[in-house]
Design goal:
mainly beta; single chain; four-stranded antiparallel sheet; Methylamine Dehydrogenase, Chain H; 1 helix; five-stranded mixed sheet
Length: about 425
């Protein structure tokens, strides 16, 4: 979801996420300027939803080690910046972000991914939108939910998927809290009921918020609660087993009870707030290992400043949440000259796939003990270094032209990677 490029002290964040943009520090993304296509593009994000024109050079991705992930095919998108990706069955959906040349990020691209190369089937234009964020299909395959980050025309677009390649619009929300811009919208069930957890961009006189929407009647979403959280932004969230994890930027990682221990979506109860090294908390994944039942680690993405197509910053941090009320950071992973953006985890096989902007995709083995290591495999502050531990297992850095990977989605034996510059990659999703 673009827009991750934040303001100057926010990362790219989704910053492409638009707030994402802000996310990125929105980066300070300010520095993030998207560059895709030929030798340059002219969109630079300077704050949530703000764009100015500038020219940025394309820089060669940093060198990496490890076996390559095989590229099966590329579905090219040259007229817009590609943002989020979600795949279900043989259909993939990508959102678009910012402005590229004269094309706004108001299109949802629909792809047939049954073969090696993604084939564009259709494009849906979202009314009164200038940049989109998350795109996600509900767990039952019935709904497609799209975050709209445009300000003052932000909101949600919810589609019925009677036919997966032909989304039918149920509602495009207008007004209310969501109007300042929905940076991300995570769709998840709590005690059987479907909700959208919407990270709202701050606006003049309005702080960052998390709005929780009841989607029991998807044609008429109901806002059941609003949390004023995040300094200066709130980015992604992760919901599982009655717990809500919130990426609250420089405030840290929040853990909330929304159904596990007496809390609810209508009355979330904060359990903890933990600052990670460097702040700029952008995205999260609570890993549950089916091989041994271990649930102690949350992976945290940091989104630092960057420029679209050329640079990025930000590490992956590992929180041990054995105590939900007192999490502690035990490990991290860093790539010189690049920063992470979004994750997708193959929990069955224990691999974390991380979008790494100009460094492509990195694959980490996350099974087992991540917080115990010899002194020679530690950072100076005592945290374990996943790279020195040999946890990096594979990577993808493109097939010659520069990449700027925004998001990843692992499904079955395939990995889908959204490249802001080029479109949608289908990769062989195996790290072994």
């Amino acid at each position: 979801m673009p827009a991750d490029f934040p303001n100057s002290d926010q990362p790219m964040m989704h910053s492409f996420k638009t707030r994402h943009a802000r996310a990125v520090s929105l980066i300070a993304l300010s520095a993030l300027a998207a560059c895709g296509g030929g030798d340059k593009d002219t969109t630079r994000i300077t704050g949530p939803g703000d764009t100015t024109t500038t020219t940025l050079p394309i820089v060669t991705p940093p060198t990496t080690t490890g076996p390559l992930l095989g590229a099966l095919g590329l579905g090219a998108v040259n007229e817009r910046f590609t943002a989020e990706v979600w795949t279900r069955g043989t259909t993939a959906y990508t959102s678009t972000w910012g402005t590229r040349a004269t094309a706004r990020g108001n299109a949802i691209k629909i792809w047939d991914v049954s073969g090696a190369k993604p084939i564009l089937v259709d494009s849906v234009i979202v009314a009164n939108a200038s940049t989109l964020g998350d795109v996600q299909v509900s767990d039952d395959g019935q709904l497609l939910v799209v975050a709209i980050e445009s300000n003052p025309n932000g909101g949600l677009a919810i589609y019925q998927l009677d036919t997966p390649t032909k989304p039918r619009l149920l509602v495009r929300t207008v007004g209310g809290d969501l109007a300042t811009g929905v940076h991300t919208a995570e769709v998840a069930r709590v005690n059987g009921k479907l909700y959208a957890f919407c990270a709202l961009d701050p606006a003049s006189g309005s702080p960052a918020k998390l709005a929780i929407m009841d989607l029991s009647n998807p044609s008429a979403p109901v806002q059941v609660s609003t949390l004023v959280i995040g300094m200066p932004f709130i980015h992604d969230v992760f919901v599982r087993d009655g717990l809500l994890f919130t990426a609250e930027w420089n405030d840290g990682v929040g853990i909330w009870d929304i159904g596990a221990q007496g809390g609810s979506p209508a009355a979330p109860r904060r359990l903890s707030l933990t600052r990670t090294v460097g702040g700029q908390v952008h995205n999260l994944w609570w890993y549950q290992d089916p091989s041994n039942g271990n649930k102690q680690y949350v992976f945290v993405g940091q989104e630092g400043p960057g420029s679209i197509g050329s640079s990025s910053q930000g590490d992956i941090h590992v929180l041990d949440i054995s105590s939900l009320t007192a999490p502690r950071e035990v490990a991290a992973y860093t790539v010189a000259g690049a920063g992470t953006h979004n994750f997708s985890v193959d929990e069955t096989n224990g691999f974390l796939y991380a979008a790494y902007y100009n460094a492509g995709v990195r694959v980490l083995d996350v099974r087992g003990d991540l917080g115990t290591c010899p002194t020679t495999q530690r950072f100076a502050d005592g945290r374990c270094d996943l790279a020195l531990m040999g946890r990096e297992k594979s990577r993808f850095t493109g097939t010659g032209a520069p990449v700027y990977i925004w998001g990843v989605h692992h499904v079955g034996s395939s990995l889908y990677a959204s490249d802001m510059l080029s479109g949608l990659w289908k990769l062989q999703g195996s790290a072994r």
